[in-house]
């Protein structure tokens, strides 16, 4: 983190990419998990999967160094980092006044697109998981707050998220974690996976949309695509509405991962749980 602040951003990003490749090729942190996930999800050969995995780790290293540089990025520089496509969708949802859930996966620089939206003047709160290491957790949340974000922890998620949505705010979160027995099972990249209920449940209870957002690297910059909002289907009971909405935004993640596989975070055990009976 000190290095990220001491070096120019482009150089820090390049150093991060090198660290990522080192983690994949030398230290081999979850290399086997990544290659297995890629071959099963994309039908790639072992060699193709290794190339995608290496690029994915390089992207993760870049993202970490860029995230650590948040403490030095002012609003002007942050706006220069990301090109947004589809801001009109957020403007329309904001005018409706019911708030919105902004959802993505562990894809691209997932910490950057919410911070950029705050810089654009949108009222965004971050729903974040808690790191095992409390000091790391504090440092990460401090970096998020430096960009003007409000933090919602999972321990108070339902109440806090519903309060934010009632105020017409946006809640940014990631929806591709393994949810074990507590999730809903939908297909992701052609395989059943237990998926967190929260994003869809918030939207169904509030009557607001989920807006899928995906960010990836393009010619040395970041491009964020804000997709049209997905609204809960009326007339369904709560469980059916949650399942339907979860399936729809998960399908959007599948689409983008297949187009940009090196931008996805393959080391996590996304398909650990394939039914509500548990792992």
Q: What does this 3D model show about the protein?
A:
The protein has helices spanning 2-6, 9-27, 31-42, 46-68, 75-81, 87-96, 112-119, 134-146, 157-166, 198-206, 238-259; strands at residues 82-85, 100-104, 124-128, 150-153, 170-174, 184-188, 191-195, 210-218, 221-226. By secondary structure, it is of the alpha/beta class. The strands form two sheets. It has a seven-stranded mixed beta sheet, sandwiched between helices. A two-stranded antiparallel ribbon has the order 6-7. Strand 3 (124-128), helix 8 (134-146) and strand 4 (150-153) form a beta-alpha-beta unit. Helix 3 (31-42) packs across helix 4 (46-68). The protein is globular, with a radius of gyration of 18 Å. The two termini are 35 Å apart. The model has no long low-confidence stretch (mean pLDDT 92).
Give a topology summary:
Blueprint: H1 2-6, H2 9-27, H3 31-42, H4 46-68, H5 75-81, E1 82-85, H6 87-96, E2 100-104, H7 112-119, E3 124-128, H8 134-146, E4 150-153, H9 157-166, E5 170-174, E6 184-188, E7 191-195, H10 198-206, E8 210-218, E9 221-226, H11 238-259
Helix pairs in contact: 2-4, 3-4, 10-11
């Amino acid at each position: 983190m000190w290095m990220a602040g001491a070096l120019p951003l482009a150089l820090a990003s390049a150093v991060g990419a090198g660290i990522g490749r080192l983690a994949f090729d030398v230290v081999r942190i979850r290399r086997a998990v990544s290659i297995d996930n890629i071959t099963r999800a994309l039908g790639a050969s072992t060699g193709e999967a290794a190339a995608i995995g290496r690029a994915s780790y390089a992207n993760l290293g870049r993202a970490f160094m860029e995230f650590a540089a948040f403490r030095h990025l002012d609003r002007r520089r942050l706006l220069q980092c990301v090109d947004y496509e589809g801001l009109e969708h957020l403007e329309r949802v904001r005018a409706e006044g019911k708030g919105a859930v902004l959802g993505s996966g562990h894809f691209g620089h997932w910490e950057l697109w919410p911070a950029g939206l705050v810089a654009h003047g949108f009222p965004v709160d971050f729903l974040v998981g808690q790191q095992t290491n409390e000091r790391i957790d504090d440092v990460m949340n401090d970096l998020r707050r430096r960009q003007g974000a409000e933090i919602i922890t999972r321990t108070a998620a339902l109440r806090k998220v519903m309060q934010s949505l009632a105020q017409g705010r946006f809640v940014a979160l990631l929806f591709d974690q393994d949810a074990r027995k507590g999730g809903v099972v939908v297909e992701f990249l052609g395989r059943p996976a237990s998926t967190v209920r929260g994003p869809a449940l918030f939207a169904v209870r509030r009557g607001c949309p989920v807006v899928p957002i995906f960010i990836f690297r393009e010619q040395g910059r970041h491009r964020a695509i804000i997709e049209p909002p997905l609204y809960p289907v009326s007339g369904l009971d709560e469980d059916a509405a949650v399942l339907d909405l979860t399936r729809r935004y998960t399908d959007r993640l599948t689409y983008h991962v297949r187009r940009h596989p090196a931008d996805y975070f393959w080391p996590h055990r996304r398909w650990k749980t394939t039914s509500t009976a548990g792992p």
